[in-house]
Amino acid sequence: MSLTDVTKPTDVSLNTDLYELTMAQGFWESGLMDAEACFTVFFRDAPFDGGYAVACGTGQIAELVENFRYTPEDIAYLASIQAPGGGAMFKQGFLDWLAEFTPDLDVWAVPEGEVVFPREPLVRVQGSMAACQLIETALLNLVNFQTLVATKTARVVQAAEGHAVSDFGLRRAQGPDGGLAVARASFVGGANSTSNCLAGKIYGIPVFGTHAHSWVMAFPSELEAFRAFACSMPKNCVLLVDTYDVRQGIENAITVAKEMEAAGERLAAIRIDSGDLAKLSKYARGAFDAAGLPYVKISVSNDLDEYTIQSLFAQGAPIDSFGVGTKLATCDPQPSLGGVYKLAAVRKAGEAEWRPTMKLSEVAYKRTIPGVQQVKRFVDGSGCPVGDVIYDETMAGTNCALAVNVTDSEVSYDFGAYEGRDLLVQMVEDGRGIGERPTLAESRRVCREALMRLDPAVKRFLNPQLYPVGVEDNLAALRVRLAREERIASSPIR
């Protein structure tokens, strides 16, 4: 929770929009408390005009559900809220119920690090209508941003072509919690380290940092500043060379590197934070090589993103590592994933069968998929994904190999020649986490392997190939039938 206030893990229950609570009270008054709901989390378009996203934040869902409680202090606060028309917003009977509330939720989600695609469920939540509603905002807040950051990082790491990437974005992140989320998600997405010490402490992420321009400016000369830092940090010596003049800074760094050699130490690297990074890195590489210092690495920063890094390598820049800050932490140029939480099925208390539901909308783009959804991922003999199919786990006669495109019913798929596996894994049962919770290192490994197996055409930055995502034939037919029935029922023309 927030570092700007004194909070507790259970405060996640109030990390929500007010309408979730007003709706829960409505369910309580309407006798729908025992009705069951099935919601799905999904996004409609891949971020950054790309071809995929990296699932992230799902590894914290179990913790979120387990901590979802309303304390006496929470209840007192809710009791104090006044309705705009006058009087208390919430009835005492509902608050009494809320004080005893525990989330009776079952949650399935895509494991952290897996690649995911538009329209397919990232998370599926089942439980009482009220519990499903109450957790919506906190769940979306958890998954939306981290998935976006992990995806941005994966793109940056791809552009870096195996060279180290460090998260430098804390000072530009959206608050303290945002900085922690960035560090966590960027590590899953492939970053090697973070500048954020708190993230290092909490999550075990390697931390990295040396000195800023103010260090150089605090000394009478740049050379004295470099010497002092080398003396203070001989095992962590990266010299920032662009405070005054980069070329002179490189010469001073060479002088200090020679002095460190004489003392039995080595200058690790220099960092360039401004100017023409391609041109200056070439100059630096040539100068250090000529000085007999080929081991000194070149690191760069300064508003980097995947496109800048890709351009630097296209220019032949001999760069060894990248510090990526603002555009990683803010996910420039797309600040939001756009993930949504939609009701997909309901059933009354005591009923065995789910009733599928869907949002129609006047805009076809926003129409949802009904049913208790699962995703079947089909892979070829090398384990490389060839397509995903959304299907209803409860529907009889399902053949996941046959599907129509999720947005274009004129396009059909037959994955019968491939092996398939379910993508959503149950992480919560009756409000408690189940199974082993993967470490961040394991989630990072999953991401790396998933991206290695993904078609390069889907991963390219410009006009990526669309990955096949389909709706199983029977579910697609149900979707069409439900839409037709609703249109007929609501039509003014009889």
Q: In terms of topology, how is this protein built?
A:
Layout: H1 18-30, E1 36-42, E2 53-54, H2 61-66, H3 72-80, H4 92-99, E3 106-109, E4 115-116, E5 123-128, H5 129-134, H6 136-160, E6 164-167, H7 175-189, E7 193-194, H8 197-203, H9 213-217, H10 222-232, E8 238-240, H11 246-262, E9 269-272, H12 277-290, E10 297-300, H13 306-314, E11 321-324, H14 326-329, E12 340-347, E13 355-356, E14 373-379, E15 385-392, E16 402-405, E17 412-414, E18 419-422, E19 425-429, E20 432-433, H15 440-453, H16 456-459, E21 469-472, H17 473-490
Q: Mind telling me the CATH class of the largest domain?
A: Alpha Beta
Helix content: 25-40%
CATH topology of the largest domain: nicotinate phosphoribosyltransferase
What proportion strand?
15-25%
Number of domains: 3
* Main structural class: alpha/beta
Question: In one word, what is the shape?
Answer: globular
Per DSSP, the total helix count is 17
Mean pLDDT: 94
Task: Tell me what the CATH architecture of the largest domain is.
Answer: Alpha-Beta Barrel
Q: What gap, in angstroms, lies between the N and C termini?
A: 55 Å
CATH superfamily annotation of the largest domain: nicotinate phosphoribosyltransferase
Please report the total strand number as a whole number: 21
Sheet with the most strands: spatial strand order: 13-12-1-5-3-19-20
Low-pLDDT runs: none
